[in-house]
Amino acid sequence: MNISNLNIEQIRRDFPILSREIFGKPLVYFDNAATTQKPLCVLNKIEEVYSTINANIHRGVHHLSQLATESHENARRTVQQYINAASPAEIVFTRGTTEAINLVASSFCRSQCKPGDEILITTMEHHANIVPWQIQSDIFGVELKVAPITEDGELRIEALEEQISSKTRLISVAHVSNVLGTVNDVEKIVQLAHSYNIPVLIDAAQSVQHLKTDVQALDCDFLVFSSHKMYGPAGIGVLYGKEAWLDRLPPYQGGGEMIAHVSFAKTTFNELPFKFEAGTPDYVGSTALGEAIRYIEKIGLDNIRAYEEHLLYYATEKLLQIEGVKLIGNARRKSSVISFLVGEIHPYDMGMLLDRLGFALRTGHHCAQPLMEFFGIEGTLRASFAFYNTEEEIDRLAEAIVRVKGMFNA
After folding, report:
1. Which end of the chain is more exposed for a tag (fewer CB within 10 A), N or C?
2. Closest CA relative to residue 147, chosen from 174, 123, 171
3. Which residues pair with 383 in a beta bridge?
4. CA terminus-to-terminus distance, the chain
5. Nearest-CA neighbor of 205 among 83, 98, 339, 365?
6. pLDDT tens digits, one per residue of 150-187
7. H or E segment and range at residue 267
């Protein structure tokens, strides 16, 4: 695998936090599935907006408001091009993946479902793709059905098809599991669903920063992701929806910006995408997200994928050489996530000691408790990689695990 296209040393200099120390040890940041670090260009863009063009958007005729509005809408077009949506009107800014799923769950169930109708998800979903549907179940009486996975952490698509019934109204599935790293065959899932005239929502929170995403080629009906997991700021995310679907769905929230005309007798709603963007939007966050996307595109998603696949393979080989390490999730197609256990050591204990050695890993159930129940465990350690990580950091992690393991065996 050719990974020579990336200058990792130069890339790391773009991320100031990577040069700091934790408890006197150089930081090794392996918690990228939770949130990524931010390059200088994104940090500088946030400061630039607040310092030079800060003003509320869409509502002012003065120069600063016009500049801020242009910056915000340029970011929308940047997102549109990044995922190849047909129109900027199909890009709705939200607070993140979680709010985007809640938006679809609320608006879709309110307008498209009746009691007894079914929403189909999978065993490997993040809580953000479980709980919103359960809330709608309580409100509207829809039923949540769950497609099974294998012991290797792969979705059983034939079993998913068996779950489809005349009452299935929507299928919502993660592109990449935040715990297992499994890359689901979303192309096949969309084709299958559409053969039954069922729309599909893709949770792309763990994929859009690693894999090329073309919503028109994929033909998904909805797709959601977060800025903070793709080197942008926290507090902003994206809902992509086919224009025909967004037109059909009612607004999620009411307030300013999402209206065309308000009277005490009746309110009419704004055109897309503003119908779903109530209140003052995070125009600073959107602008910084656009900058993060340009940074990713400068490096190149093909280069990123090749290098991260190399890191995943390298780390897998290193960890499996340590006696007692058990990997959770062995799908044939994986993204840059490894969940694992070390003997009988509780992942919290291992994680806390690794933290003292400078390693930022995630421990626990990773907001996927039903998945943990499937594997019969309380939680795991999780190492998740980005293009600024290195083989040397993985070597250090392996050495640290052996060291901590020795403390428990002493």
Report:
1. C
2. 123
3. 338
4. 40
5. 98
6. 999 999 999 999 999 999 999 999 999 999 999 999 99
7. strand 267-269
Nearest alpha carbon to residue 8 among 361, 303, 405, 359: 303
Say how far apart CA 15 and CA 48 lie, in whole Å.
18
Catalytic annotation, residues: 367
225: three-class secondary structure by DSSP: strand
- How many angstroms separate the CA atoms of 184 and 206, rounded? 11
The alpha helices in 2-118, defined as continuous H runs, are 8-13, 40-48, 63-83, 97-112
Neighbouring residues of 17: CB distance < 8 A, sequence distance ≥ 6: 27, 29, 37, 38
Place of tokens 């204990």: 349
Domains and CATH numbers, the chain: 8-30+301-409 (3.90.1150.10), 43-297 (3.40.640.10)
Q: Nearest-CA neighbor of 3 among 298, 316, 395, 303?
A: 303
C-alpha span between 211 and 143 (Å, rounded): 32
Lay out the sheet containing 362-364: strands in order across: 325-328, 337-342, 380-384, 362-364
Q: What is the mean pLDDT of each run of 10 residues along the chain (410 residues)?
A: 75 97 97 98 98 90 93 97 98 97 97 96 97 95 96 95 97 97 98 98 98 98 98 98 96 73 69 86 97 97 96 97 95 96 94 96 94 95 98 97 86
**Helices then strands (H, E): number in the chain?**
14, 17
pLDDT for res 1: 40
181-233-245-197 Cα dihedral, nearest 10 degrees: 0
